[in-house]
Amino acid sequence: MPLLISLLAGLVFGLGLIISGMTDPARVLGFLDLAGRWNPSLAFVMGGAIAVALPAFAIAARRQRTLSGAPLQLPTATRIDRRLVSGALAFGAGWGLAGLCPGPALALLVTGNAKVLLFVAAMLVGMGCFEVVERWRPS
Predict the structure, then answer these.
(1) Where are the domains of the chain?
(2) For residue 6, is pLDDT > 70?
(3) Is the pLDDT of residue 139 over 70?
(4) What is the 3-state secondary structure (H, E, C) of the chain?
(5) Does the structure show a pLDDT above 90 at 118?
C-alpha cells in the first residue's frame, strides 16, 4: 500500500509540474532572470505549494502515524550549517544553468529529450558521488 501511495503522490506531483509549466526550462530561467524579462509564474506556483503544504504540515505535526498507518517521520534538523548552505548553492547553480531540478527532469524523461537525459544522468552520477563521499566521511 505505501508503494501505491508513493506512486500516486509522484503522479500528482508530476502532473502539477506539467500543468503549471514548470517542466519548461525557459520558464524557470525566466523566473531567475531578474535583470531581463522576468517571469513571475514560478513564484505563484511556489506560493500555491506553500499554501497547500503549511496546513498539511500543521496537521501532520499532531499525528504519530501516516494515513496508511506507517510511523510519521518529519524533519528534525533546525540548524543552518555549512553542508546545507553548500548543497543549496550547488543545487541553485545547477538549477540556474539548466533550468531544471530533479522533479521536472524526471517528469520530462518521457520526452526522450537528449538534454534531459544528460541532466538526469549527471544528477545520478552526482548522487552516486555523494554516497561514496558519505561512506568515507567520518561520523
Answers:
(1) 2-136
(2) yes
(3) no
(4) CHHHHHHHHHHHHHHHHHHHCCCCHHHHHHHHCCCCCCCCHHHHHHHHHHHHHHHHHHHHHCCCECCCCCECCCCCCCCCCHHHHHHHHHHHHHHHHHCCCHHHHHHHHHHCCHHHHHHHHHHHHHHHHHHHHHHHCCC
(5) yes
Contact 26, 99 (CB under 8 A): yes
Phi/psi of residue 30, nearest 5 degrees = -65, -35
**Do 42 and 31 contact (CB within 8 A), yes or no?**
yes
pTM: 0.75
Q: C-alpha distances in angstroms, 41 versus 7, 20, 22, 60?
A: 27, 8, 9, 29
Which pLDDT does position 85 carry in this prediction?
A: 95
Residue 116 has a CB neighbour count (10 Å cut-off) of: 21
Q: Which pLDDT band holds residue 54 (cuts at 50, 70, 90)?
A: very high
Cell reading at 55: 496546513
- Residue 99: is it exposed, middle or buried by C-beta count within 10 angstroms (0-12/13-18/19+)? buried
